[in-house]
Amino acid sequence: MSKIAKCTHCGDNMGIIRVDKYNRPHGAALIAIGFLFLIALPVEAILSLVLLPFGIVVFFSKKEVWCCPSCSSIAEMAHKKLN
Ligand SMILES: [Zn+2]
């Protein structure tokens, strides 16, 4: 896979940076709700088994995108397979 891309705005060579894949506050909220269920509602604690891992994935997932050093425009990488 090519590690070189041209900026569509200014034609400069773009570099790769890592950014948050999902909305971090959403991940933090899921983790907080998961803990709340775990502590406050023993019956619903089973829900936290779903919410906590999901929240952690949302919170910590990163993706690589192209970033132009000249004009700071960001471009999604073209992935051959979805993940
Ligand atoms: Zn550019």
Mean pLDDT: 87
Sheet with most strands:
4 strands, antiparallel
Structural category: alpha+beta
Strand content: 15-25%
Q: Order of strands across the widest beta sheet?
A: 1-2-3-4
Kindly provide the name of the CATH class of the largest domain: Mainly Beta
> What percent of the residues sit in helical stretches (DSSP H or I)?
25-40%
CATH topology tier name of the largest domain:
N-terminal domain of TfIIb
What does it look like?
The protein is of the alpha+beta class and 83 residues long. It folds into two domains: 1-21 and 62-83, N-terminal domain of TfIIb, CATH 2.20.25; 23-60, no CATH class. The chain contains two helices and four strands; from the N terminus they run ββααββ. The chain has helices at residues 24-40, 45-60; strands at residues 5-6, 13-20, 62-67, 74-76. The two termini are 16 Å apart. The model has no long low-confidence stretch (mean pLDDT 87). The site of zinc ion (ZN) has 8 residues, from loops.
Which tags fit this structure?
4-stranded antiparallel sheet, N-terminal domain of TfIIb, 83 residues, binds zinc ion, 2 domains
Topology:
Blueprint: E1 5-6, E2 13-20, H1 24-40, H2 45-60, E3 62-67, E4 74-76
Summed up:
With 83 residues, the protein is of the alpha+beta class. It folds into two domains: 43 residues, N-terminal domain of TfIIb (Single Sheet); 38 residues, no CATH class. It is built from two helices and four strands; from the N terminus they run ββααββ.
